[in-house]
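Annotated sample (chain length 300).
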Amino acid sequence: MKCPDHTHYEDLFYDFCDTCGCGSSGGSMGYGTGLNNNFFGLRYIGQEYRSRDGIFADSPWIQENFNTLQAWGNFALTKKTLLNIIVPYQFHNRSFPDNTSQEINGLGDISILGFYNVLPVTPDSIISITPEHYIQIGGGIKMPTGKYDKANNTGSVNPSFQVGNGSWDYIFAMNYGFTYRNWGISTLLNYNLKTKNPKGYQFGNQLNYGVNAFKTYYVSNSLALTPQLGLAGESYGTNKEFDMKVANSKGSVFLGKISLEATYNQYSLGLIGMLPMDQNLNNNKVELKNRVSVYLNMNL
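Output written by the structure step:
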């Protein structure tokens, strides 16, 4: 019998997306897995920003919407190792004060990561009623499969309005979690090391961290509901163009999160909402308004 305790962890570690490069790096919503190491599915991520249309303090705001549709999955290679793949498709738009607008779309930057389970995890087929800890460490690459267009940065301090960032980036990640019966806490820490793209632009390195608390309610033998509350932090280094620092390009944001996942047999449907609690992005010239995500996974 498939244990329902082990079918609701997919979204615990996939909640973060960078601002500087968010439109270009569809796989940056966080990396890792939970106790269920095998799934594939589709996820939509929507983000709403506003940024200055110019460099002056009284420059008007422009509205920006970043939309990402991802095919993603985790596939166990051995009992202790697994492979994580995220393939994003981006479709972004922004509206200018003069009532004009711009849209871009296309394949984003594909991410591939490997993880190693430092601590053993009870298999999905076994029901565990004792407390469990797990630690996963891993790393991987983000490939420049999405197009970077330097012209999209003209007139705006937000360089993230891109389908791809054009560079090979390297990701280091670690996850820790604790579960007891139907309660649990999960934490994540990952670092994105970003390199210069062929156009001479380099997005700043990025640190993501977060914690989630959850409880699962078993409605029936085949249906479980898991509400979650969490906090997340993101910090971005200064961007560079031709090895020169780009002004007003670093920042940080601290967010609150609420989500609900419904698991029916081997399928999981999740809804996630995130709001900034404190932020200073691009010297306050970029503001995150909200983030939402919807996903449907099939547990293997």
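Annotation: The longest strand covers residues 61-76.
Annotation: The two ends are 13 Å apart (CA to CA).
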